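User: Before I run my own analysis I want an independent prediction to cross-check against. Here's the chain; please return only the structure tokens and, at the end, one sentence I can use as a sanity check.
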Amino acid sequence: MVGLMSDIGNIRKINEDSMGYHEDDIKKIYVVADGMGGHNAGEIASKIAVDKVIDYINSLQSLEDLEIVIKDAIQFSNKQIYEFSQTNTTLTGMGTTITVCLAAGNKLVVANVGDSRCYVVSKGRLIQVTKDHSLVQQLVDNGTITAEEAAAHPNKNIITRSLGTAPVVDVDTYLVDLQYIDRVLLCSDGLTNSLTEDEIYNIVINNTNETACKKLIELSKQNGGRDNITVIIFEGECKNDRNFTRE
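Assistant: Structure tokens:
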């Protein structure tokens, strides 16, 4: 069973994160979005992103190529946000991150724009599937800073790609074979900025999906909770023992 939870955190006045999912006999869709833009703009952008991606995929008669489907869904969502932002000057600059999982059979396609993440638990390890579109990730990639330095970098929240800020957006996709995956986690950066991967892993494998979401958010808030925090956890197809030890 899917677990999902979103929390405003300890500091922010509104929750600009959005989340959603849809499951039927053919497919499963899971989405997390982290809005930006101030006032209510970020909240609106993230909700449009989640709703339009799910609506677009559900409107299709065929899911022959999951990668094309998920990219087209995000492009459609991006266009909706961008066009809405042009209707009022107070909405200028509104945007959102997005991370989407689309599963059919044993196949899972993950797509992201921005720094909301997808992780999988496989063979006793927590593995980050997505790659952040952020300033600090660029600095890590070019060797300017280390991954450890990135975790505490003062500009770690600056993203380099988002939905809604331009008519077209670049979307990264990743193909995952669910038969080797125990669980899948999507989250906004409010979680990953507050918890280590070891903390996330230990909570996920020792609890049900619903309880894990609750405990992850509780610990994030204990550790500061300076941002909104959103988590979705769902099952893979691996039938191995849940009680892994991390390598």
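Sanity check: Residues 241-247 have pLDDT under 50 and may be disordered.
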